[in-house]
Amino acid sequence: MEQKDVEQLRQKLIQGELTATEQQDFFNWLKQLDQPELNAFMQEYSASFEKKTDSVAVEQNEDLAKKIEMRLDALEDMSIPFWKRSAFKLMATAAVLVLACSSIFLYYANADGNKRIALSKNTNTPHAKAIYGGSDKVLLILSNGKRIEVNNFTNGQLAVENGYSIEKQSNGLLKYTKINTAAALASGNSNTIETPRGGQYCVNLPDGSKVWLNAESKITYPVVFSGNTRKIALQGEAYFEVAHNPNKPFIVDFEGSNVKVLGTHFNICAYGDGEMPKTTLLQGSVEVNKGDRKKIILPGQQAILSHNIGIVNVDTNHVMGWKNGNFSFEHERIGTVMGKISRWYDVDVKYQGEVTQEEFVGSIPKSKNLEEVLHRLELTGLLHFKIKGRSVTIMP
After folding, report:
1. What are the FecR protein domain coordinates in residue numbering (predicted)?
2. Is residue 212 within 8 Å of residue 268, measured between CB atoms?
């Protein structure tokens, strides 16, 4: 089928105007797609459907959806993968969804390797008081133990620390400016930047490197990078853009391991919550060390640290989803998914009964309120949620 014919059928599907013959042609075309092609079509289809919402004849689409499901139920062609048959049904159902905002696809992988696709609808009227996620919140801890809640201060100087002036700039970022060279060189003290649950922050380090901290994360770094290295400590998750300095390697210590670079872009996730620490490289090269083991990773690779150092290829867009405003799930079980959600919305998570062990794949904007996010997960049919105050209970 030529592309112009596919486009014509797609437009008729959106308008609810497919004839019986056209329905058959449309699904014959879908049957020959592989999974990536089908996923891409689903995403394009949902975006087009959203734009056409006001003119959709809902009753016609409901009737169409029923006819399509009946047609699919009658299909006994087992050469069609289960994930694809499920996708067809969900696409039919999608034809009757009235979407007020963005659509989200959530994919989940069954233990047997099959795939299903769920198209979620937006939740515009939360039943409980809406809980929204974090913002730029940060705590600066000076070497003398003084704690400064940066958000409570207007722009300007916050402190003078070991020959450096620490200022809050108009963009909210901290800036270190050397004002006393002798005091700075003599300093061996460190500062700590800490984001709470529901917070995130970007900081410029004294050497010019930039660090973005995810929620419930902290870094400790010297006010002056003296000696032959630039060493800091991380707990949580952070993305680094390291200022190039071939004479002073930049070293990040985390969970008994470290990453050594000269100047590069990389992400480290090390919350110490039972999940294996991961280092992902976006640009340059890094050396990952754990005990006497050492590995070099390249852009697009991720080092997973357990007893050994495993190297896998990853989608860096997924890894950086948190920094770019999304929850990104890549074959992650509900415990990992809820870890990300609980840190962002500052909620406690409880489990009731035996919850699913399926792996989730997909993306949801972090700008959505908590109930909207949980509702989208519920649309997979795998679990249910109950919100009470700042506590979330997960049930089968």
Report:
1. 192-287
2. no
> Are 197 and 307 found together in one domain?
yes
Beta-bridge partners for 219 = 193, 234
Question: Which of 120, 145, 196 has its CA nearest to residue 382?
Answer: 120
- Do residue 295 and residue 384 come from a single domain? no
Taking the C-alpha atoms of residue 391 and residue 201, their distance in angstroms, rounded to an integer, is: 25
Closest of 229, 273, 224 to residue 253, by C-alpha: 229
CB 44 within 8 A of CB 7: no
Q: What is the pLDDT of residues 253-304, one digit of tens each?
A: 999 999 999 889 999 999 988 889 999 999 998 999 998 899 999 999 999 9
Q: Please report whether residue 113 resides in a domain.
A: no
| Contact by Cβ (8 Å): 334, 394 | yes
Residue 309 tokens read as: 């150092």
Domain coverage including residue 369: 332-395
Cβ(232)–Cβ(266) under 8 Å? no
Q: Tell me whether residue 102 is exposed, middle or buried, using C-beta atoms within 10 angstroms of its C-beta: 0 to 12, 13 to 18, 19 or more.
A: middle
